[in-house]
Amino acid sequence: MADRVFIGIGSNLGDREGNLSEAIRLAEDGKGLSVVRVSSFYESEAWGVARQPRFVNAVFEARTVLGPRELLGYLKGIEAKMGRLPTERWGPRLIDMDIIFYGDRVIKEADFEVPHPRAQERSFVMAPLSEIAPDLVHPVLRLKVSEIARRIDKTGLKRIGD
Question: Residue 48: what pLDDT?
Fold first, then answer.
């Protein structure tokens, strides 16, 4: 049976919107991942390292038969295929793909955490996630995504097309 997952994606280099669209297209290539729906694209200030171009971000819902670590490897493979090179933490990137939620699983290992440990702090994750899954409950915080999104500071966040 396929698990319901939510993937956050972002880009702040090159054709940012095109990079997101290409990552979503590559994610659904018939190898264990099926994209269900995609949020609007949002533009935001860079997080962590301020002196860099603005990001475009989105979240997509998918179904997968891949386990959590397999899925992470699959997403990192897409990043590599698109030309992402190792960079400084929170630095500029052509594409970034993160597992936000993997069903209602909670995984806390030295090098891998689900849900994403900082998702609830990031408007560029919570706003698009709330758009496509407002009633989804954060498995650690036990709050609906829409409630987290309502409370979070959205300064500098802009939905593209508004």
Answer: 66
Half-sphere exposure of 8 (CA within 13 A, CB side): 25
At residue 4's C-alpha, the angle toward residues 86 and 43, to 5°, is 50
Instruction: Tell me the whole-structure pTM to 2 decimals.
Output: 0.92
Q: Which one-letter amino acid corresponds to residue 153? A: D
The total number of structural domains in the chain stands at 1
Chain segment 81-110, per-residue pLDDT in tens:
998 766 655 567 889 999 999 999 999 998
Residue 84 known to be catalytic: yes
Q: Which domain holds residue 82?
A: 3-159
User: Has 93 been annotated as catalytic?
Assistant: yes
- Could you give the CA distance from residue 19 to residue 77 in angstroms, rounded to a whole number? 15
Q: Over the Cα atoms of the chain, what is R_g? A: 15
In this structure, what token pair is assigned to residue 102? 């993997």
From the candidates 3, 4, 63, 98, give the one annotated as an active-site residue.
98
